[in-house]
C-alpha cells in the first residue's frame, strides 16, 4: 500500500513539473487535492483544463500542440492513477483471501469457541450430559472454597459431583479477560483435540458471558507437588519405584507432544504442580495455558518467555523464544526435584545456599549420588535390587537434560528410551 502511494506521489510530482515544460496547462497538487486517510487510502488528482486561447500568428500551432500534449498527459495520468488504485484494491482482496485460506488450511487444529454474552457449553465425552453454568454451580456447591483442589496461575480448580455420580474437575478461569481468554483458547487448541495416557483429559467447556470454565476428568491422587512437599505422614511418601513410574509417564507424555502431535506442541510449564497422579500413580501432564504450537521443521518459535522460576532454562534470559530443549530442561529439573525432594526455585540452606542445579551437578561430578537422595527414600531403596546403579543412572539422565547449552540436551524420545532401560516396566 505504501509503495503504491509513493508511485502515485512520484507521478503527481512529474505531472506538476510538466507545467514548466509544457508551459500551458495547470496541475494543482495542493494539500486539498491529494488526500489519504484511515485504512483505505484515497487519492485525488485535479488537473485544471483552463487553457489560454491560441494567439494569432505562427505561434498558434505551437499553442495548440501544447494544449493537446497537456490534455493527453492529463488523460494518461487519470488512467494511470485509476489502474494503480484498482491494483491496490485487488491486492487487498488477494491478501484477505490468502489469510482466510491460511486460517482454514487445517480446521481440526483449532476449536474456536464463540465469544458472546450468551451461554454455550459442550462435552466431548458422549457419556456426559451438556453442562451449563447452573449445573456446574450446583456440582461445585456454588464454587465453594472447600471444593478447591488446585490453584493455577489462571484460575481455581474445583472438585465437582455431577447428578449421574461422575466426579470431574472444573477450572474456573480468571476474570482477567485477556489472560483468561488466551489460556482458554490454548487449552482448547491442545487438550481439546489430542488424547494420550499421560495427558489429563478435557471433557468439555462452558462459556457464560465473561465466565469461562473447563471440565476435566478427575485425577484421584492430586499433584506431584503435594506428594513431594506437603505430605509427611507415613504411607503418604512416594517410594523409589513409584517415582520412576511417574517420571517415565511424564517423559512419554512430553515426547508425544514434541513428536507425535501435528503440529508439535511445546508445553512451556513442566513442573511438579502440573503433574497429576491417578489412582495407580500414573502421571498426567496438565495446565496447557502456556502451550504453543511449533512447526516440526523449526527449532523455535518467537514468543514471550514464560514458565516457572527454577524450571526455566538459562537461555530464556537472552531472548523471547520457546523451544523443545527448554521443555527438556524443565523435565530434567523435575527429575532432580523428585529424586532429591527439594524445590528447584529455592536455595539449599545446608549447601551454602546453592541452587538445586549447582548442588546436584557439583556432587555428581564428585560421584556422590547417594548424598543427593531424598532422605525419605532410604527405606524404600534398601529393599530394591541394584538401587545404587539406578540412582546413579537416574541422576546422569537428569544432568544430561539440564545441560547449560540447549544443543547438548537430548530429545525426549531418547529420554524415554533411557528411562525404560533403567528399570523394565514389569519390575516397577
UniProtKB/TrEMBL annotation:
Domain of life here?
Eukaryota
Primary localization: membrane
The compartments listed are:
Membrane
List positions binding ATP. Answer: 172
The alphabetized UniProt keywords are: ATP-binding, Glycoprotein, Kinase, Leucine-rich repeat, Membrane, Nucleotide-binding, Receptor, Repeat, Serine/threonine-protein kinase, Signal, Transferase, Transmembrane, Transmembrane helix
Pfam families recorded for this chain? PK_Tyr_Ser-Thr
The protein in question is named: non-specific serine/threonine protein kinase
